[in-house]
Amino acid sequence: MNNRRRITGVVTSNKMQKTVVVEITRNYRHPLYKKVVHSSNHVKAHDELGCQIGDKVQIVESRPLSADKRWVVEAIITQETKTADSGVEV
Predict the structure, then answer these.
(1) Do 22 and 12 contact (CB within 8 A), yes or no?
(2) Which CATH number characterizes residue 38's domain?
């Protein structure tokens, strides 16, 4: 194993070719006020696996692949299953 960071997140966009936007959420307790803080970060990751929106993926640090891509999708942990009626409102 190498020392590269590995983070899990959810795919929020796959409209680019071989690139996905992954949202990384993090919860931590504020050191002074002791409240739980919810923070999220969006990163672009190189995708050779064909991720879909809603998939939970593991991304790994890599060399800079473009102006704003520094992550690569390593594995799809869970795939989002879409039903035929998911986007229909009555």
Answers:
(1) yes
(2) 2.40.50.140
